[in-house]
């Protein structure tokens, strides 16, 4: 690159042809999950929208196929906070898809109050980490037999404020909504790095990659007070363009992690702008805490016990 030449911006136009590939995306009925699904469908992939709400998933399917009539899009009901739902969805996908090329663990969220799932786990941890851990494990053999397959897990810049509270993973003593969320998003990265280590050791054709959307205007903050939601809204235009980006921009790190031919296992993609809030995706670094191999292994063991899902690698 010549001196003074700005690096080329990676966009959805860089996503190669996806015909013949099967892509499963969790939480794909809105936000960055929907935008990623739309691009994959337009590029010819068979796309499965794995979503908690069947009606909203069906609406997302209609919107995608209205814009791309030849798109191959189906839906599956998946509530990541319920291990029974995770098992049903995985069983259904396994029955219909002998191969999976891409699994994108996109769904997530934050709860302002403390909730415990039917399985006894704190809801934010279950939705963001334990559910995806179980879902990935139950589908992994479909990826392991597929050359070039990838598992992309969506984390957050908030992981930098996170720590894994092994003494009280479920915040039974005292609940802090953002502490629970940051813990779960840190867990996403630790899961990715430990999974990649195991895949590489097994000589598997599958890689594990991570991404974060920056600060994207999605339904993530729907429980927040109205002033906070307004501050995160693109309706403020130039006033917050340096702080918030659209769901289409927020989906680009996921798309790059999923399709960039230069991506390698353990890579992490996000925006390069101020505090990694906005911008076209590039490789970024995660916190030192996310690379603690001992904590990664301990979290893996805890996750296996809590989900009763073990991996073939």
Question: How would you characterize this protein structure?
Answer:
It is a single chain. The protein is α/β, with parallel strands linked by helices and 313 residues long. The protein has a single domain (13-307), classed as Rossmann fold (3-Layer(aba) Sandwich). Helix content is 39%, strand content 12%. The chain is built from eight helices and eight strands; from the N terminus they run E-H-E-H-E-H-E-H-E-H-E-H-H-E-E-H. The chain has an eight-stranded mixed beta sheet, with helices on both faces. Helix 1 links the parallel strand 1 and strand 2. The longest helix is centred in the middle third of the chain and has 25 residues, at 177-201. 49% of the residues are buried. The model is unreliable at 234-240 (pLDDT under 50).
CATH class: Alpha Beta
Give the CATH superfamily.
NAD(P)-binding Rossmann-like Domain
**Helix segment tally:** 8
As a percent range, the share of strand residues is 5-15%
Number of beta strands: 8
Q: How would you write the strand order of the largest sheet?
A: 3-2-1-4-5-6-7-8
